[in-house]
């Protein structure tokens, strides 16, 4: 049996990807959990956080699950995100990616998560 390429952890909760106006102040509900991501650009304020904390009137794509690549990953590693996204794209699985200093996070729709995990395991990724 060949060694696994990388280990990924499937987080249990469901998350949402929200879009707020670029002038918006970061809302209190955005940072209630261990995992959240906030990105501000000249066009928008984008927030990824627990789905249950997002107000219903917020522009949001709900129903995402997170696969965390266990790290930390060395900056010299090449093609991790490209490899994972290609594998999932071949199965028609859309992703939303977030990178941090230490590692990468792959968001997949909850409806696709089982297929994503099976696909990654078949390609020698370990998913816990």
From TrEMBL:
Record-linked Pfam families: A9CJY8-like_N, ACT_7
InterPro entries listed in its UniProt record: A9CJY8-like_N, ACT-like_dom_sf, CASTOR_ACT_dom, CASTOR_mTORC1, UCP008459
Record domain CASTOR ACT: where: 60-120
Positions of the A9CJY8-like N-terminal domain: 13-57
Protein name stated in the entry: Uncharacterized protein
Species name: Clostridium cavendishii DSM 21758
